[in-house]
Amino acid sequence: MLAAYAARISPDDPLSALEVGERPAPQVPEGWARVRVRAASLNHHDLWSLRGVGLSADALPMILGCDAAGVDEDGNEVVVHAVIGDPDYRGDETMDPRRSLLSERFQGSLADEVVVPRRNLVPKPAELSFEQAACLPTAWLTAYRMLFTQSGLTPGATVLVQGAGGGVSTALIALGAAAGYRVWVTSRDEAKRARAVELGAAQAFESGARLPERVDAVMETVGAATWTHSVRSLKQGGAIVISGATSGPNPKATELNRIFFLQLKVIGSTMGTKEELERLIQFCRTTGVRPAIDTVLPLEAARDALAQLEQGEVFGKIVLTRP
Ligand SMILES: NC(=O)c1ccc[n+]([C@@H]2O[C@H](COP(=O)([O-])OP(=O)(O)OC[C@H]3O[C@@H](n4cnc5c(N)ncnc54)[C@H](OP(=O)(O)O)[C@@H]3O)[C@@H](O)[C@H]2O)c1
Hints:
α3 packs across α4 and α3 (136-150) crosses α8 (274-287). The mean pLDDT is 97. This protein is of the alpha/beta class. The radius of gyration is 19 Å and the shape is globular. It contains nine helices and 18 strands. The protein has helices at 44-51, 130-133, 136-150, 167-178, 190-199, 227-232, 256-261, 274-287, 302-310, and strands at 2-6, 18-22, 32-41, 62-63, 69-72, 77-80, 83-84, 100-101, 113-117, 121-123, 158-162, 182-187, 203-206, 215-220, 234-242, 265-268, 293-298, 317-321. The strands form four sheets. Strands 3, 5, 6, 9, 10, 17 and 18 form a seven-stranded mixed sheet that branches. Helices cover 26% and strands 27% of the residues. The structure holds NADP nicotinamide-adenine-dinucleotide phosphate (NAP). NADP nicotinamide-adenine-dinucleotide phosphate binds at residues 43-45, 48, 138-139, 142, 163-169, 187-189, 192, 207, 221-222, 225-226, 243-247, 270-271, 309, 312, 314. Residues 43-45, 48, 138-139, 142, 163-169, 187-189, 192, 207, 221-222, 225-226, 243-247, 270-271, 309, 312, 314 line the site of NADP nicotinamide-adenine-dinucleotide phosphate (NAP).
């Protein structure tokens, strides 16, 4: 079957580690299900994998892709929950110490078929297209958990989203605005700031700009480049919810004095549970909110698509499709 996969690891030139070509169709273990992939969206995770972050050489070759929407062997339209846990673990799957994300230990979704535990399948509602549904399991689920499970925010609160164009950022803007938060956004790019306002942000600012007032919470995925601004933008007692560090994990100034003196909270967040994915899908149905999709390409164009993601020339999600 056709697949986009990491054939090697390249920390400095991730695209040189990518191959788009034939891989054997996957075996289906007892209790698992085969899904014919109709759409799979890209995430920054795919670039990290090619760089060897979270993927070791002994796991190669590894098909990339965390997100999929498709059709199972019984003809049901499904969305794949990407957190693959220990079958005996009970409770919040994101806390399972043996969990992995699709494409870390088990072959990913940028392929004709993906095989996952049957319990990881969630029904796809008819009103979401395969392309839209394929955006939900990683970036959108992460944004949902950051905003609604971890932040402690209630509607009417002001939330700052660092970065405007990313998969997680665009989800944070759309979900936060639909939930009644006042969403402020930063971006390095003027055009992306304008798009963020169209998506529901109340205001958009240049990265690092002084805000009109301090905010109740900051949603961080950028890391080193925006961390100091995030800490300085918070009200006393406010919270930073962090799920990523695209620009690096070591900010120049960590602002520890400010964190303890103003009793700020720093809250880590990773992916989401299957129940949160089901609620996210229901949220989209109820509110009419849909993922911002930048580009839809066939799987054969995976190299161009990943190059676009690497260059940051994206507003929203890139989706790869199969017939
Ligand atoms: N913990 C989890 O479960 C989880 C889940 C999903 C994602 N993540 C992580 O979250 C991060 C974002 O993921 P994604 O898929 O949304 O990535 P993406 O689509 O590539 O988004 C990149 C974002 O980062 C911003 N950005 C990048 N470099 C920047 C810099 N130097 N200064 C300011 N802003 C910068 C961009 O903002 P502008 O271009 O608008 O300025 C853009 O919004 C990644 O690191 C990913 O690994 C973690």
